[in-house]
Amino acid sequence: MSQIDGVVQQNAAMVNDAAQTTRELSVEARQLAELVGSFRLEEADGGAPAPEHRARAIQTRLLNEA
User: Fold this and answer.
1) Could you tell me which of 4, 3, 57, 62 has the C-alpha nearest to residue 30?
2) Global pTM?
């Protein structure tokens, strides 16, 4: 029975570690999205819209997932 208790405690510790890592990655994803969002791209080839809308969409998706 004590072996089961030890395994349960190890699992609980791993869950806590995973939760902390998830929180840290969420913060980093938000920071990265903010950095990416600060770039402004010029219009490409003959006035065609630059892919800024793609960068903004990625930023929005990262912020929503975080």
Assistant:
1) 62
2) 0.55
H or E segment to which residue 38 belongs: none
Rounded (5°) CA angle 21-26-30? 150
From first to last of the 66 residues of the chain, give the pLDDT tens digit: 889 999 999 999 999 999 999 999 999 998 988 888 877 666 555 555 556 666 777 777 777 776
Q: Are 36 and 59 in contact (CB under 8 A)?
A: yes
**In whole angstroms, what is the distance from residue 20 CA to residue 32 CA?**
18
